[in-house]
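Re: beginner question about structure tokens

> Can someone show what the tokenized structure looks like for a real chain? I only ever see the sequence side.

Sure, here's an example I had lying around. Input first:
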Amino acid sequence: MNESTYDVVIIGAGIFGMATAYHIKRSNEDLKVLAVDKAASAGAGNTSQSAAMFRDTFSSEVNLQLSSTTRNFFRHIQNDLGIDLSLKDITYLWLMDRQQFERNKPAVESMLENKIRIEILEKDDIKRKIPELVTDFDDNDDAQMLGLKNIDYGILGYDCGELDADKITRDFYENEFRKLGGETLYSTLITELVLEPEMEKLGIPGEPVGWQKKRVGSVLTDKGNTIKSKIFIIATGAWANELLLPLGINCHVMPLKKYMFRVQHDKLSGFLENEFFNEEKTTPFFIFPVYGLHIKTVKYNNSIWIGGGSVTGKPFIITDPVKIKDENNPLDDTDANPRDYEFDRYLIMSEYLPVLKDLPLTNSWGGFYAMNTMDKNPVVFKPEGIKGLLIVTAGSGSGIMKTDAIGRIAEALYNNKEHAELYGGISFKVSRLGLKNREVDKEYFVI
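And the corresponding structure tokens:
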């Protein structure tokens, strides 16, 4: 058995893990820092399954600060540092019926007050700019059965768009982390966090026993090796419970399966070509009025990615921490069932976009959201009663667009700072994303 020792070990080299690793190493280059992951490379888990979109259209102060500072940092990387992230402001378009629009009016007014660049589009304007889109279903029996809503308004977000998840994770965070002297270890599964007494061992069987103060002193790998560190940072997302539940730690995360379906066909070229919304002259990222359905448009290969859908009745996936070494871990499943497209998403989307009718599904894949069961925002905290541990997780479907802010908040918590400095000099109180003194204001821009 081999044994190695570090100052900091980040378990999980997805985008949260690599952003945290980079910011901690950048804050103190003398630290010996290791990022370890069971995948063969950084960002190869659920980060790679993401649609990789970003936006600043939030009413919540926390959401706005986390997302806007991250977006601005990504723009700095691409525009000032010259590292291509394939970042494009293709815009977001939320489609709503009249009731949804009225319900979201306070949030829209809040965004306008915060100088978020949005525009309200009315039905006639939407029909003129996107003639392929069906906006009225009052006389459509099939649409009524499916629960479809009319499209009466659109909220267009200008400072919203897409980037390449692999590029930001590997070409920037991992690459810069390594330049600073950080180390990576891939294809290595951490199977157990090993508790030990905080003070000197007393030779008591089963140490640490209940009254002894505890710390995580080392971890075990699937290769039989031991890694020691002063602090371990858990950034494993949907897999977090496998390591934390055996220690009695609740990080309020539940894995929820997500799917993405791609349709690619030359018949989509006319729909994808659009001069009204962005410099790319493509249709924007759509959010439809029902079930959180959305499409990402990819003009260069005439395709659209369809995501979202009703999660009512869909199970959270719970795995047994004792079976963490199992080869058939359901949280590693990246398959999507084509029937979920054929009998669900397709039926809805082909009503809104008849151009999709009879076009074959060309690809599909799946992954997992690490859903925060409290308020759908990330958690960054040190658990009470166990030292040597810091937890960074719960992207809840908006992880990429908040990544850099989360990495800076994790670095501040590691260094015992009360406030993190987000990009652009914005101060953020670290405890706001913790558990004990959590302070996350409610998000009202919800469809």
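Each token stands for a local structural state, so reading them left to right follows the chain. DSSP finds ten helices and 21 strands in the chain.
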